[in-house]
Model the fold of this input.
Amino acid sequence: MIPNGLCGCSPGEFDTFSKPLFRLVCHCRTCQLFFGSDYNDECTFLLKDCTSLNAESLEFKSYQSGFSPIKRGQCIQCGKPKYCKVEMGSIIGFVSIPTNYLRHLDLPPPIAHIYYDNRTTEVHDAVKKIAGHRRSQAAIQWAVLSSLFRRAFLSKDS
Ligand SMILES: [Zn+2]
Ligand SMILES: [Zn+2]
Done:
């Protein structure tokens, strides 16, 4: 079941997903505005693993000022926020999907709350809280690199 505020126009789109690379909770202003919530709990996957996504049903836009590789997708049909796409040229791409779309999966806990200085609500959990743009970006980069490294060298199924 898709919770309120999320798009249910492409049922089954996330059914074949397996474990994400990592999960993060972002409290940045852009996520708050785009998702209309206090923070965005999201799971990141490699774009090439996400072949079941119906990207034509979304309109992708860049919401940050200045250069950003992040494009946020909104459903054309219902107007609700869907997921974000990050493409680094043609080399590698990622998709970050709100965890609420993925409740049917056995998900890992978030590795951190980022942009926590911008929080509109206190979160009382044992997950690490990271404040500030530079440290938050470093946390994302570390999450990407360490998860790709783990996948490449430690897992048998990749
Ligand atoms: Zn929709
Ligand atoms: Zn954010």
Remarks:
- The helical segments are 29-35, 133-154.
